[in-house]
Every structure is written in C-alpha cells, then in structure tokens.
Amino acid sequence: MLPPTDQQTPTAALLQAPEAQALELAIGDMHLLLEQHGYVIALYPSGIRPEHERRLHSIRSVLESDRIALVKVELPPLGVAVLVRQLRQLSICDFSPGVVASAARLLSHYIYAGALLNSVAKLDRVPVSLKSHAKSWVPGSQFAVLAGPEPQLVKVGPTAEPLTGPEFRTHLLVAKGQLPSDWVRETLAPAWKVQAVHETAVPTDSPRWWGTGKLVEFAAHLPDISVLYQLVASVRRDRCHWCSMELIGDRCAFCSAPLPAPEHRDRRPPTGVLQLESGGRSGP
Description:
Helix content: 25-40%
Strand content: 15-25%
Radius of gyration: 21 Å
Distance between the termini: 47 Å
CATH class of the domain at 112-226: Alpha Beta
Mean pLDDT: 87
Number of strands: 10
Number of helices: 8
Shape: globular
Low-confidence stretches: 266-284
CATH architecture of the domain at 112-226: 2-Layer Sandwich
Strand order of the largest sheet: 5-4-3-8-6-7
C-alpha cells in the first residue's frame, strides 16, 4: 500500500492471502472492519491467484453482508496501489460508499500503468507479437510496455516510438526493480510532460504479473484530490435496482447488478425484490 499524500488520507487494511491467515481469522477481521467503518471496498487485481479471490467471496458469503464490495480491476500491481490510494482520498469526501466503489472503474481509465522490462518472453497479460518475443532473447534488449488504459509495447532504442501517454497533467510514480531506471526518468517522463516524479518500492506481486523481476514499474496518475472529486462528481448517479446502493457507471459495485436500460428504469422494483401484497402470491 502506498503512503497517504496528506494527513487527511486514511490508511487501508491489507487482506491476507489464504496461506497467511486462517479463514476464521479472516472472517473475524472483515467483521471488525464492517463494525468499525460500516462498509468495506475490497479492491484487487485481475491477476490475483484464484484461491485468494475465492477466499474473498467466501468471506462475504459467510458474513451474508451486502456491505462488502469486491472490485476487480484490470491494472498491474503499481496501478492498483495508485487506485487504492485515490479511493482512500475520495472516501473522506461527501460520496456514498456505492459511488466510491463504482468510481474504481472510472478512475482506472486515467491511470497509465506500465513497466520497462528486459524480456517479454513470459509476459502474458499484455498482447505481445512473435517478433517481440524473438527480440526479447537478444542480450541487452529492453521493452517499454503499457498495460492500461490501452495496451502498447515498444522496443526501447534511439529510434523507438514513445509510448502513448496522458493528455492531462499527471505525476509519475516509479518503482525501481532489478533494472536501471534512466529511460523512465530521462525519456518517458519528459515525453509525458509529467509534473513530478516520485519513487516507491516494487510491489511484491509485480515480478509475477510482468513475468520478470528485471523491471522498472511506473504509473502516471491524477494526484490532486480536487480533480478526482470533480471527475467523479461530474458523472450521473443512479440507484441500484437490486440492493438500492448509489452508483455511477453501468454496474453496481456491491451486488454486481447491471443498470437497467433507460426505458426500464421507471418500472423497476424499488428494493430489487418482488413486492408482495398481503396474502398475495409470488410469481416467476
């Protein structure tokens, strides 16, 4: 987890992997979080191990709670860390839990997450051509890979095309692994016109996600809480037809119910279940 950007940004709880904590203790920890805070938004990457994802669903099922949102995002580890911090910033604003949880999908499109790699031979989360695979076996080769918001891969060199970067003001977070980071600071940062460069440790799961430990991971992001607030506040809010949570976008982050088509919204049941008349019969 990344450190807070200011004194107001709250911390986050780290949910342990199955081999690190017994299920009973994990359930107890989640119950305590719900008692202390009311709602829990569990953000995790799509590359998480299946048994870890099953653990999260098991905990929610055992607690039978509609106050736990399990939000899976298509970002590499450093991008996930940035997104978690942004949601922590938004959690102290006047947004409801449903809006904060569903804002994860929106904000992930404004995080340019990638890495400088010495090889793409084992990279399976970003499309890689056979030509790039062949080049990765050449000693000294380096590749710049963008995982999101749009996948991109270039071989680093004097004539290489730069990665497509953000068209808005960002800060660049850099996690230095077992690879020199000169290209990121001297080439990428100026090309993307970032306002500041910050360093952090490489996330534990990054070598597995990128297929190599010889990397420099980076993520350009919106650093200003006022800009994040305006971005989220500008999106239309709706009410989930199933669990009644407030949301932005086309799907509820708490129960995963899709937003009904516009022509059906006025006819949806107010609480997501059939309203039975006293003594009436339920229908299919």
